Amino acid sequence: MQAFNSSVTRLGQLLTCVALMGGSTTVAADAERLEADLRALFGAGGNLSLGEVSSGMLRSRVTAEEIVFEAEEGERLVIDRYIVSGDYDAPDEVTLEGLRIEDSLTELTLMSAERIVLGEPSHAVFPLHAELAPDEVRLGSLAIDGIVLELASELGEELFFDTPLQDGQGRMTIERVRGESLTHDAIGMLEITGVAGAAENLDEIGSGSFTLASLRLEELTGLDTEGEETLASLLLRDLDVDASELVGSLAMLDVDGDFNDGKGGMRLEGLQLDLARMIELAPEEERTQLRMVSNVLTDGSGELRLDAALLGSWQEKGEHSVLVSDSQIDVQDALRLLFDVNLPVRLPAGVTPADAFADPDWLERATLLGGDMRLSLTDAGLFARLATLGAAMEGMTEAQYVEQARTQAQGLGMMFGPEAQAVLLGLVELLEGSAEELEVRLNLPAESSVASYQTDPLGVVDKLNVKVETR
Fold it and tell me: So which domain of life are we looking at (predicted)?
């Protein structure tokens, strides 16, 4: 029995050695392929040097170290380690550690990333100089940590093309980037967290600094066709900007662009603009007028605060659909605006409610089956301050200013009809403080079209049942 066990042991050792020899042949071939692919990746037009290219004996992993590519244009690409894990033809992961793009003349680092992990990439090394079919460019996932980017570089211009950062000069850091299901024309998910930067020449924003806690995009499609892009959702949190033309912050922006579940829209929370700081940074000759506007909007605090929700939903009702909009804008210490819409409609053939929300042009071809709209304006101090400012600018008392406004409203009402007059006189009541809320309700006829209103805009009021109330 002891001899039998000894024989089995020796046989196992022999089989293991054979397996390792066969595996070593495969991984050695993979090492050669990785080196060849890296050299082909950079091609001509520069100088490439590679350190050790090695294969793991017990794991399917190939590593190239100390990759340095000197481009003829003067840029240098450095990658400390390039690791391919799994089957070389269908890798589980490709990892790049210590990536840097440098200006070889100034030794300035234009961009760096501590670690990049490509999950389930379609290639171990993407052949940039070869023409690939669209389905040959894909990533199952993406993870990037520790990004530092100089904005005043060609890379920065390409990454932020057509944004305020395109011509910026400064530095941006990003703690991490995470992505899922990335292809040539779509992104399943992309999340960027821990963004901070300081720059000059940020388009209309001017020069200054900014931070962003996170930005998450989901189901971004149509990237290969201009004008066909669609976005299922966007969520932005904690944006702060302190620049020469803009000082403010935004707590949250939530955009739901996927109406296939019957609802969508946009929420904006905690938008704050430091008007007082912005006025200090404005040219001296503009400050007096800007302060007047700021005092009216903010009651002298110099800080404008706004929340908004523009929401929509739809329901199927047999042969027609009911589209509902529930929107609200709240400017703190100034006003609150509510807009509600309830429209039963018969959509054109082949148009779904989700299509309708995505493309407002559908309204011109839809049949409106009655419905109602409600607009409510609540004063939270703005109109009283408008009356004070208007009276001061006209050199009269507030009572005289209100009576002048009432006379003008009555005159305009004679031109545009009693419904328009009722709205204008309601605004005058807000000015004089005899009312705090103005509400306008519109009831549509049993069957109509947007086109009929567009061809005769002055006759719209005659076709609607309009009711105006103040409280």
Answer: Bacteria
Sign of the four-CA dihedral 454, 459, 465, 469: positive
Count of other CB atoms within 10 angstroms of residue 105: 9
> Which segments of 252-300 does DSSP mark as H helices, in order?
275-281, 284-298
Residue 302 falls in which region: left (phi positive, over 0), alpha (psi -120 to 50) or beta = left
399 vs 390: CA distance, rounded Å: 11
Tell me which residue of 227, 133, 231, 121 sits closest to 186, measured CA to CA.
231
Residue 19, phi-psi category: left (phi > 0), alpha (psi -120 to 50), beta (remainder) = alpha
The CA-CA-CA angle for residues 385, 336, 380, to 5°, reads 35
Name the residue among 15, 28, 158 with its Cα closest to residue 88: 28
Can you tell me the distance from the alpha carbon of 356 to that of 369, in angstroms, rounded to the nearest whole number? 16
β-pair partners for 117: 95, 143
Give CA–CA dist 46/73, Å, rounded.
9
Contact 265, 310 (CB under 8 A): yes
Q: Over 80: is that where the pLDDT of 352 sits?
A: no
Residues whose CB is less than 8 angstroms from the CB of residue 436 and which lie 6 or more positions away in sequence, other chains included: 378, 379, 430, 471
Q: Which helix (H) or strand (E) element contains residue 39?
A: helix 2-42
Measured from the Cβ of residue 73, the count of other Cβ atoms closer than 10 Å reads 10
Query: Does the pLDDT at position 330 exceed 90?
Result: yes
What is the per-residue pLDDT across 90-147, written as a single tens digit (0 to 9) for each? 999 999 999 999 988 888 899 999 999 999 999 999 886 666 777 788 999 999 999 9
Give 204-239 pLDDT, tens digit per residue: 788 899 999 999 999 999 888 887 888 999 999 999
Joined tokens for residue 328: 């609200």
β-sheet bridge partners, residue 195 = 174, 212
What kind and span of H or E run contains 333?
A: none
Q: How far apart are CA 297 and CA 349, in angstroms?
A: 47
CA distance 79 to 67: 5
DSSP, res 347: P
Contact 278, 315 (CB under 8 A): no
How far apart CA 379 and CA 436 sit, in angstroms, is 5
Band of pLDDT at residue 44, cut at 50, 70 and 90 = low
Residues whose CB is less than 8 angstroms from the CB of residue 62 and which lie 6 or more positions away in sequence, other chains included: 27, 30, 31, 34, 53, 54, 55, 56, 83, 84, 88
